[in-house]
Amino acid sequence: MAHSRELALRDPAASALFGQTADFGSDADYGDDIEELDADDEFGDDDDEFGDDDEYEEEADMGAVKAVKRYAIKRAAPRATVRRAPARTVIRRVAKPQVSAALAARNARIMQANRARMARVMRLDPNHGSSLKIERFRLQMSQGIAIATAEVISVTANSAVTFKPEKLVCNAPCPGFITLANIQASNINSLVGSGVVDAYDFNANALNLDMELPKLSPAHRVSITGNYTGITPVGYIAAAAFTSTFTFIGHAKMVG
Asked: If phi over 0 gives left and psi between -120 and 50 gives alpha, with beta otherwise, what is residue 18?
């Protein structure tokens, strides 16, 4: 079993901390050889250049004290905690919900006001923002007849501006009053069959009056041919004068 001296030799700093010291030169021959060499060697007597023993022992004692203090501080002091600098926080500015809702409502009001304004502007100026100015016009034709007297219908006209016929309206008072054989724009007939069409199909109260006819320049004419059957509508007097009208409705290019 190891005694206190052996323990002190193993760990001098620990033994000094707990009150045990070791005699490093008492029972060992550790220093005998050195003393015999000091008598006959060439390094000089006890007062050699390396200094006296008192100074060496004093320095050794100071070193031992410092080692003991360092060991005691290391054993007694708690482990130091390393504190790291906090991570940098990136702050992103996000619009608050109420701010976003307010902006969306404001933009919606502005857009609604702009749409309402543009609707009124287009009523006053349908060509607003367009370099090509067009308007809806009528190209009318007429022929006088006598009630109860059958005769041929033949009317023709040309437009003063570029015109695109889109609808035809007639004033036939009843079915079978006038029949139409040709509805022609320039050299194109919109009636492709061999029979005739009742002009009453194009009266003001009729539906589906739309038709596709070529665009007409001032140099091209539109014409309608047919027959008045001589029928006397209810409320009309025989031999009375009657004006048959045929009106094309469509868009035309504005002059100026």
From this structure: alpha
- pLDDT per position as a tens digit, 237-255: 999 999 999 999 988 887 6
CATH number of the domain within which 196 lies: 2.60.120
CB 213 within 8 A of CB 222: yes
Contact 202/247 with Cβ under 8 angstroms?
Answer: no
Phi then psi for residue 242, to 5 deg, are: -140, 135
pTM of the model: 0.52
Contacts of 168 (CB under 8 A, 6+ apart): 183, 202, 209, 211, 246, 247, 248, 249
Same-domain pairing of 23 and 107: no
The answer for residues whose C-beta is within 8 angstroms of residue 61's C-beta and 6 or more apart is none
Using DSSP, state whether 249 is helix, strand or coil.
Answer: strand
Question: Is residue 31 a part of any domain in this protein?
Answer: yes
Q: Residue 57 domain-assigned?
A: yes
Residues 63 and 102 in one domain: no
Computed over every residue of the chain, the mean pLDDT equals: 76
| Token pair for 94 | 């996000």
pLDDT digits (tens, 9 = 90+) for 190-212: 888 888 999 999 988 887 778 88
- Split into its structural domains, the chain has a count of 3
> In this structure, what are the phi and psi dihedrals at residue 136, rounded to the nearest 5 degrees?
-90, 125
